Amino acid sequence: MTETRKSPRHRVLKAGTIDLGGGAIDCTIRSLSATGAMLEVAGQSGVPERFTLVISADELHIPCYVVWRGGRRIGVAFEPDCVPHSAAGGKCSV
Question: 8 to each of 32, 34, 62, 63, 71, how far by Cα in Å?
Fold first, then answer.
C-alpha cells in the first residue's frame, strides 16, 4: 500500500483536549504529523466537525477539522493556514 499522507505520521501517546469553546472532551493523541492527528475518545457523541485541539504538554492550540471517524478514533486535519509549533506562543501561525 502506498503512503498518501502529505507528511509522515509519528506514533505518540499524549493527552489532549478537544476544546469546544465552553466545554471540553478529553482525548488521547495516538499519532501526529505536521498536517493532522489521530485521536482516541471515550465516545463520538458531542465531538463537532471543527474544534481546537489542545496539547497542553507541548503548549499547542491547533484548529482542526474531522476527516474520518471510526469506533473510538477520529482522524483530524489541521486547518490549512495553521502551522502548529510552540515557538508561536502555543498558537498556530495564521
Answer: 8, 8, 18, 19, 23
